[in-house]
Known about the structure:
Strand content of chain B: under 5%
CATH class of the largest domain in chain A: Alpha Beta
Helix content of chain A: 40-55%
CATH superfamily of the largest domain in chain B: MetI-like
Number of helices of chain A: 15
Number of strands of chain A: 14
Number of domains of chain B: 2
Structural class of chain A: alpha/beta
Largest sheet of chain A: 7 strands, mixed
Structural class of chain B: mainly alpha
Oligomer: heterodimer
CATH superfamily of the largest domain in chain A: Periplasmic binding protein-like II
Number of strands of chain B: 0
CATH architecture of the largest domain in chain A: 3-Layer(aba) Sandwich
Strand content of chain A: 15-25%
CATH topology of the largest domain in chain A: D-Maltodextrin-Binding Protein, domain 2
CATH topology of the largest domain in chain B: MetI-like fold
Order of helices and strands of chain B: HHHHHHHHHHHHHH
Strand order of the largest sheet of chain A: 1-3-2-4-13-5-14
Order of helices and strands of chain A: HEHEHEHEEEHHEHHEHEHEHHEEEHHEH
Distance between the termini of chain B: 29 Å
Shape of chain A: globular
Amino acid sequence: MIPFLARKRAPLVALLAIACTGLAAAGCSSSSSSSAATSSSSSSSATASASAQPAGTVNVAYASSLQYLNEKVVGPAFTTAEGYTFSGRGGASGDLEADIASSEISPNVFEAVGGDNITPLMPKYTNWYVQYAGTAMVVAYNPNSKYASQFKAIADGSKPVSDLFTLLQTPGLKLGRTDPNTDPQGRDFTYMLELAQDYYHLPPDTVAKILGTTDFGTASSSQIYAESALDSTLQSGQLDAASAFVTQAIQLHLDYVPLPLQINLGSAAYAAQYKKALITVKSGTKHGSPQVIDITIIGTPTPAAISFVKYTLSPAGLAQYKAGGFSLPTPKVFGSTSSVPSAISSELGG
Amino acid sequence: MTGASWRLRSASSILSVIGAGVIWLALLGPVIALLAHLDGSAIASALTAPGALDPLVVSVESGLVTLGVLFVVCTPLAWMLAHGKLPFPRIWEAGLLCSLLLPPLVIGLLLVFMVGPYTPIGELLAHLNQSATNTFLALVIAEVYESAPYYVLGAQAAFASVEPRLEQQAGLLGDRPRRVFRRVTLPLAAPGLAMAASIAWARAMGAFGAVIIIAYHPAGLPLEIYTTLQETGLASALPYALVLLVVALPLPLAAYIWSARAGRRRRG
Lengths: 350, 268
């Protein structure tokens, strides 16, 4: 009986083996080094009407802070409105820029936090970009915390914002932030504290007292959480306050203290001031910069890419950004304005 | 046996071995890819940096503490499950399966509700100057929760494989239950327990989902791979994966070999 079964199973084993060979080959040949998240979406309505509308896909590489907006709002709305399929890839702006520069990825459109992540791609991949939205640092807080009333008083203006930085030094107050070595928000929070210390003429050890260390770049602090864990830990009531971008706070319905433009990294007008804030992390010393969003087309503009940028800069697209908590400065072209596709220029009123 | 049927059986055996070999290689695909993409100089520079081996120490220490906790806390539970000492055994087993089915990330998120600083457990720990978030204790808690179901279910199977007749005979000869357990049950179940422990060890060493939520530091090897990947890229992160394999493999391998030998001895 057993030999019979063994004979019967042999072809099955061989069949499985053949099926698995492909998997093994795939495992051995993979050379991708990107840790970026990828996705693609196409609404059913768009699929149904694909024959009547333009066909094609726009591949968009975007900063992680735009993930929710692109994947859940702008991408599907663009597909419905224009008929093109949206395929997104999120990652840190600097990483995406490096991946594009090394030709590891070839998106049609690149949305970065800060134009300094696009200029290194000039002129090989693009020679223009449009600045069109911005986000800013806030301090999110737990509404059930014993400090909640004090946070609320600062948030609604009954107490000055400078009090926030005294409150954050309270012994026993549980503050959460992300790793400045791996997450831009972790660095931005430190820049914000440094800017606040200067702006409000606070004692020189204010930042160190709030962070609980003089080594601002260390990851070994009980305040540091993974990006994926920080908001959930705050929401579960196990932190009193946490760093956040305003867009994230709005998206997750967090209570937060808004901060003035001089320290919140939310305005390109204060770029020179922001640059004075610095942090030394494992990869070197980094400086503060405005959290503005810039968009460009990489390589030869495809109809889908032009359509996506045009849609993003249209009143409908910008309204989606506004609803997501982004600020909307007047869109401004940097670089060679004559290289901007005419459909996009006309959307900008050019 | 005719020549034709011998040839058929022989061809069938060869086909089976080839098939098994290909499946084995396919399962090893990620390991082969790791070895194929490792660069000697990258390994040297990654592992000779100051503090580079700290995550290894953290992983080994937390893994050993986790195994200790599992032995002490979960072995009696597995024994009781195997011997039907608990009422409504299916409910107990379903509970274990629930923990097994929950994604580790979700376990981490839920552990925050259990042991976070403002929970009763967290506040009790604070009185003792301890914390179950972002500490070594938090790392052990996360590893215990990720590996415990594997250990309990494996240990339950190991205890269930012991012939009840032998335990009964030892009892009839006057041995008290504790002595029966020590002299009969434990030695006979030991190979299976070793296998369960080796699987739990592998889970603890590779624990990531729950760890990243409640124990961002001290960083063990899995978290170090993740943060290094983000900080300096794949070339610097991959050497840690090799270290993880080299350090984590000997214990389960030894348990596997010992278990197989014990099984052969028992069969005679």
